[in-house]
Amino acid sequence: MYTVTIEAGFSAMHRVRLPDGVLEPPHSHDWRIQALFSRDELDESAMVIDFDVARSTLETVLAGLHQTDLNSHPGLAGRNPTAEVVARYVFEQMHTLGLNTLRRIEVTEAPGCVAGFEVTDPIEHPRKDRELTMNTAIRRMDG
């Protein structure tokens, strides 16, 4: 399996509803996003994906989140804007833009706190009328 990872970031604020129902106070993060792409075999250019295409697509998606209140963002409407939800949103937006070798998005909300969203089986063309088979994974690391 060949892989490529691209990283970019954005700044945004949010308020997360905690398990006890309490809303956190509004606060901001400098979010770091890693996008992992993979292929069993390289393409005709001997690449998984062109770095420039992957980076510019990630930056385009993140530009829509930069300097926003994630609780008010239309793409996250009605959802608790956790790092896990942000990871899925970024994944879906990049996949919609045609990056079919995308396999995982990792979101670092704060040092040592990483959430991810990944494809369990490669999907060529996601469709709105069927549920994507995805796993949400959270990895909390001691910092």
Description of the molecule:
- With 143 residues, the chain is α+β, with helices and mostly antiparallel strands.
- It has one domain (2-11, 28-140): Tetrahydropterin Synthase, Chain A, CATH 3.30.479.10.
- The protein is 19% helix and 36% strand.
- It is built from 2 helices and 6 strands.
- Strands 3-1-2-4-5-6 form a 6-stranded mixed sheet.
- The two termini are 30 Å apart.
- Mean pLDDT is 86; it is low at 124-143.
Please give a handful of descriptors for the protein shown.
alpha+beta, single chain, 36% strand, Tetrahydropterin Synthase, Chain A, 19% helix, 143 residues, 6 strands, disordered C terminus, 2 helices, six-stranded mixed beta sheet
Helix/strand layout:
Elements: E1 2-14, E2 27-39, H1 51-63, E3 68-69, H2 83-96, E4 102-110, E5 113-119, E6 134-140
- Mean pLDDT across the residues is 86
Tell me the helix content: 10-25%
Describe the strand arrangement of the main beta sheet, using strand numbers: 3-1-2-4-5-6
- Taking the alpha carbons of the first and last residues, their distance comes to 30 Å
Low-confidence stretches: 124-143
